[in-house]
Design a protein that fits this description.
By secondary structure, the chain is mainly α. It has 14 helices and 6 strands. Strand 1 and strand 2 form a beta hairpin.
Length: about 375
C-alpha cells in the first residue's frame, strides 16, 4: 500500500533536502552539497562498486556478471571492461560521490581509474569520436576542481584543445562528431553530444583558469547550438548533410540546458537562464512519461539519464526550484523501488530491474540520481 505524506510535510522535506546544501556549502567545501550520507545514495553507490569496480585493474567492468557481451565487444579485453566513454561516465559517478562525501576511498578510486584509463588507452587522442574525448576532458577538469591534482587538468586541456581543432564554419559552426573525416559529404555530423559537452567543458576550464578564451569558446559553441538546435524548448539531436534530425534523447536536453545555465552563472545574462529553464520544462512535459524519465535502451543510451539528472539537480538546487526538485525526488523513488536484489537499477525506472546481467552504463544513471535526490514515500 502506498503511503501519502501531508502536503505541508512533503513541502518541508523537499525544502530541507534542497536548501540544506546551500546552508552548509561553505562549511563543508563541497560546492553546495552537504557532507552527510543518504542511506539510499550510499547503498546504491556501494552496490555499483561491488558489481563493477575492479581495483586490481583500476577499471570498471561493462556488465555486472563480468562476462563479455558478444553484441558489444568494445573496450579492454574485448568488452569485458567498459569502453572509452562508458568508463568516463563511471569515473564521473565516483566524482559525484566524492563531491558529496569527500571519502578517502573515492580519492583512491579516482587515482586508480585515471591511471587505469591511461593504461587501457595510452594513445587516448586516437579515438574516432570527439564526443568521447570530450567527456573525459570535462570530467578530468572536474576531477581537478575536486582534488587539486594538476595532472587531471593537464590531460583535460590537452583533450579539449584536440577536439577544438575540429571546429569549423560548416552548418554555421560547431565541432564535428568524428575526427577521421570532416566535411558535409563525409560520413559525419555535428551533434549536441559533441558541442554541448565542449561548451560545458569550456565553462569549467574558464572557472579553473580564468582564461578568457575558454569563456569565448563556450559562448561561441553555445550560440551555434542555440541558433541551430533549439526549437522553443525542443532540442535537435544532430545535423547531418545540412539537415536537422530530431531524436528526443535526455542527455541532449541535459547538455544544452546545463551549458546555458553555466553561462548564466558566469555572465549573469538572464537569456541563458531562461533557455535552460524552458529546455528543462519542455523535457519534463514532453520527454518524460508520466513524470518519469524514459527507458532509452541499453548500451550507449542506457547512460543518458545520468547526464541529464546531474545538470537538472544543480539547476534545481541553485535556483531553489520546487518543481524540478520534486521531479527528481519522484524519479528517485522509482529507482529505489525497482532495484534488483543486487541493489542495481536498469534503464527502465518504472519496472523491476531483472536479476540478469546489468550494463554498468545503465546502472550508473540511477546511482547518479540518488547522489543528488532523496526519494520520498508516495
Amino acid at each position: 500500500m502506498k503511503k501519502y505524506l501531508k502536503p505541508m510535510l512533503v513541502f518541508s522535506l523537499f525544502a530541507l533536502a534542497f536548501l540544506l546544501p546551500s546552508l552548509t556549502a561553505h562549511a563543508t567545501g563541497t560546492q553546495g552539497f552537504p557532507n552527510i550520507r543518504s542511506t539510499y545514495a550510499e547503498k546504491s553507490y556501494n552496490s555499483f562498486l561491488r558489481s563493477y569496480w575492479d581495483p586490481k585493474k583500476g577499471y570498471f567492468y561493462m556488465q555486472s556478471d563480468h562476462n563479455i557481451d558478444p553484441t558489444h565487444q568494445v573496450g579492454p579485453e574485448n568488452g569485458r571492461y567498459s569502453d572509452y566513454w562508458w568508463e568516463a561516465q563511471s569515473f564521473d559517478l565516483v566524482l559525484d560521490h566524492y563531491q558529496r562525501t569527500r571519502s578517502p576511498r573515492d580519492h583512491k578510486i579516482i587515482e586508480q581509474a585515471y591511471y587505469g584509463f591511461l593504461k587501457a588507452y595510452p594513445n587516448y587522442l586516437q579515438n574516432d569520436y570527439n564526443d568521447d574525448i570530450g567527456w573525459w576532458a570535462n570530467y578530468l577538469a572536474r576531477a581537478y576542481q575536486l582534488t587539486g591534482e594538476k595532472k587531471f587538468l593537464a590531460t583535460s586541456q590537452k583533450m579539449f584543445n584536440f577536439i577544438l581543432g575540429y571546429e569549423d564554419s560548416t552548418f554555421g559552426g560547431g565541432i564535428w562528431w568524428k575526427n577521421t573525416e570532416t566535411g558535409p559529404n563525409a560520413d559525419n555530423e555535428k551533434n549536441v553530444a559533441t558541442n554541448g559537452t565542449a561548451a560545458m567543458t569550456a565553462t569549467r576550464l574558464y572557472r579553473i583558469t580564468g582564461q578568457r578564451h575558454y569563456l569565448n569558446t563556450a559562448t561561441r559553441l553555445f550560440s551555434f547550438l542555440k541558433d541551430n538546435y533549439y526549437h522553443n524548448g525542443r532540442i535537435v539531436d544532430r545535423i547531418r548533410n545540412g539537415q536537422p534530425i530530431f531524436q528526443d534523447w535526455t542527455y541532449d536536453y541535459g547538455q544544452f540546458a546545463n551549458a546555458a545555465f553555466q553561462l548564466y552563472r558566469l555572465t549573469g545574462k538572464r537569456e541563458y537562464y531562461l533557455l535552460a529553464d524552458k529546455t528543462y520544462d519542455y523535457s519534463i512535459k514532453n520527454v518524460a512519461q508520466d513524470g518519469i524519465l524514459p527507458a532509452e535502451g541499453n548500451y550507449d543510451a542506457g547512460g543518458f539519464k545520468g547526464i541529464y539528472v546531474r545538470g537538472l539537480a544543480e539547476f534545481a538546487q541553485k535556483t531553489h526550484s520546487f518543481k524540478y526538485s520534486r521531479f527528481l525526488q519522484n524519479n528517485a523513488y522509482h529507482v529505489v523501488m525497482n532495484q534488483n536484489s543486487q541493489g542495481l537499477s536498469g534503464n527502465d525506472w518504472t519496472t523491476k530491474t531483472p536479476e540478469t546481467a546489468i550494463q554498468s552504463h545503465s546502472a550508473a544513471s540511477g546511482v547518479i540520481l540518488l547522489q543528488y535526490a532523496y526519494p520520498l514515500a508516495h
